[in-house]
Amino acid sequence: MKRILYILIAVFSIGSLLFSCEAIEDRESLPAVTLTPETLKYSVTQDATNKNVVILKNDDPSVVPYWKYVDAAGNELGHSNKSTDQITLPFAGKYTIYFTALTRGGSVEAAPVVLDIAQNDDTYFRDPKWQMLSNGVDGKTWVLDFVDPVGWAGLDFPYNPTGKDYWNWFPDYASNSWVMPNKNWGEMYFDLNGNYNTSVTQTAIANNSQTTKKGTYTFDIANNKLVFNGGAEMLYGGDYYGDCSNWSSVKLVELTATSLRLAVVRDQSRTGEGVCLIVFHYKPKP
Question: N or C: which end of the chain has fewer CB within 10 A?
């Protein structure tokens, strides 16, 4: 039986190498300011040529901004800590933008901004990866592919194949089935039927009971990132859940019409096993 070799990555930055994390600064380093909702300096504006594009801007450098945007049903569509950000709301409907300023003394929330998007922006979904992931309005379901369901890789995988931290190890599953039994672990569903709809059914290890969580998702193609919103989390197999702190904001490693690989960060540096990606492999449900 083969054993998994974990390689310690001595120098790393999870934020820069993986997700470009929107880290919130230490509040003690912020200036001591007193704010009220009326004195907050920010703006939410729709683009002049495309009303589906919204520009979020914090005009006060003394605070850390936190943006959240939801649809008419209250589903969270995304969030950001950027001082200036641009989001696209491609579906017609009402949306609410929330702005919170984080200061040394605490947080101050502005009055929500409600936007009315008049029409769909079909050009937003021209990239074929949207269709590969979701099959558009009709939807698509993914399940774990037990030809090679799980693997391990360096934080730069696969976009830096010659870098000093590059390594990867995809197991010979026939010799390593102990890491993740071949069973029905559940499924992930995505569609674009009037919203970014998703649902994830996860099978428990102990008793094989299943729970299903529904929500929305954010698909950041440019940054190879997929985010589950509203409580849903990525489908996984085995007993890895406690090894990873974040199962909702995940790295997109591969996407074709027939293959999907998503990765989360496993940090076991305290035990000497190091930090790596756990890469799960999915195929369309028959």
Answer: C
